[in-house]
Amino acid sequence: MPFRAIEVKHFANKGKVQKIKALFPHVRKTARKIASYQWHVFFKKGSFSRKANIKHIKSTLSERYKYTIQYHIVVPVLESFLSNVQNRFEEIVLNSSLPEKTKKVLLYLCSRKEFLHRKSNRAVWIKVKDGEVLKEELEITEEERHLAKKIFKHILKRWNRPRFSKVQLVLDAKCGKIEKSRTDTFDYWIRVSTLEKGNPVYVPVSLHEYFEKREGSLTQVVQITEEGEGIKVRLVKDVFQREYEGKGAIALDFGMNILFATDGGDLMGREFYRRVEEYAKKIDELERNLKRQGIKPSKSRRYRRLQERLRAYVKNEVRRVLNRIVELYKPETIVVENLRGFLKEVINRFSKSVKRVLMRFGLGELRRKLKELEEDYGVEVVEVNPAYSSQACSCCGYVDKENRKTREGFECKVCGRKLHADVNGSLNLRERFLEGWGRSHCEKEQALRRQVEKFLENLFSERYKCLWSKARGLLTQNPYFLKVLGDSPKPEVWTSVYLRDTCPC
């Protein structure tokens, strides 16, 4: 069952809050020391260990705190980082020109995290074809092991490892015990161990309607985060998956003026960017005034409050829209563009402070909500490469910058189809998912080649053969087709090869 951290209302006074906040620097310093030791364990044994002996690590915190930090903070963060390394490893292998057998072996080693240590002598490759399970055993050579190690170290060299400079408190019963209240004033008391031995603080908390309605059992894990001058408290529930019957797939495109466009033609979150721009104007104006007065924006309570309101609005809107999509469509699969490119083009019109909220907080909230949909409803979330999806026609497949002359308007120069540009993009994402783009990784150049080849195939189909003469004149001047098919001094050279120099009519 999945775990869900749900914020609850606390009533800790200023003195208790200060004692809890005093823990954060010590927790982060200890986390960095434990992480350094965990990397030592990883390079020696090939995996991290939540139960590693860390008595030798010196810290101002108690032994209970040290093992709690290792179990609930350090190792989960490092395992998440390693999971991202595995994803990047797969991308590099799948986009390489290595032999098929070598790719299979490298992917097998990646799945078992055998980057540095030998755990098996043969790779077992299992695939399902026509309902039949096929098992293939491949011998792992020393060259392939060396190549896996080289790719892994290449990724580690380019990526920054987690620094634990902003981690929050995650406590279990050893350091943050949850006790049922004996009165009706509060629901629970949380006993938090502090830096003063034998002097814990008791934080009273009250539950709300959503927490009580959410099915599941309360665990003994507490999350405490810093929020300006105060703290936020979250209790963790072991929740159940809700009854849900999904139907088909729905594709979502991140719009330039709206939050999402669906392949069904719905435009969701139409007011999102307008409201964000309103917050941006207020934040930018206040920031300029504060700088003129020689005051750091982070020291201003009003500035922090505006930032908090912006974060709250982004969070609520992302969750509201995705909940509405699930309610309307009841999808079995949600297809989205690769989240690495989330809002990168859209947010360029905002200031740095607002960009930071959208990129870090907004993207994180989107990932969290999609993960919750997977856990709560069993909805599969598939990412596909969005390269050129906004410029390609979802009808005939022709890709051209001139197809999209405005943010909202799309008109294909070949087949003449007109529709909302973001809806066209979502239709392309859905088509790419159905063609298997979401099951494999591809770079931007490969995405362009696929799109060009798709259009050329369509051009010789019965449906689009009437567009031959119009397309022929455009292709010889289209830089995308010249790039993919060869920038020859005589474009008719490659058009005669790829277009057969014969009208299919």
Structure description:
The structure is a single chain. The protein has 505 residues and is of the alpha+beta class. 45% of the residues lie in helices and 18% in strands. The protein has 14 helices and 16 strands. It has helices spanning 14-21, 23-45, 63-94, 100-111, 142-158, 209-213, 272-292, 301-329, 352-377, 421-434, 444-459, 468-475, 479-485, 491-498, and strands at residues 3-10, 122-129, 132-139, 169-171, 176-180, 188-192, 201-206, 216-227, 230-239, 249-254, 260-262, 267-268, 333-337, 380-384, 409-411, 418-420. The strands form 4 sheets. The protein has a 7-stranded antiparallel β-sheet. Helix 3 (63-94) crosses helix 5 (142-158) and helix 8 packs parallel to helix 9. The protein is globular. The N and C termini lie far apart (59 Å).
Tags for this model:
disordered C terminus, single chain, 45% helix, five-stranded mixed beta sheet, 18% strand, 505 residues, globular, 14 helices, seven-stranded antiparallel beta sheet, alpha+beta
Tally the beta strands: 16
Number of helices: 14
Percentage of residues in DSSP E strands = 15-25%
Average per-residue pLDDT, rounded, comes to 84
Low-confidence stretches: 487-505
Rg computed from alpha carbons, rounded to a whole number of angstroms: 27 Å
Largest sheet: 7 strands, antiparallel
Roughly how much helix do the residues carry, as a percent range? 40-55%
Q: What general form does the structure show?
A: globular
N- to C-terminal distance? 59 Å
Q: Strand-and-helix sequence, N→C?
A: EHHHHEEHEEEEHEEEEEHHEHEEEHHHHH
* Content-based structural category: alpha+beta
- For the biggest β-sheet, the strand order reads 4-8-9-1-7-6-5
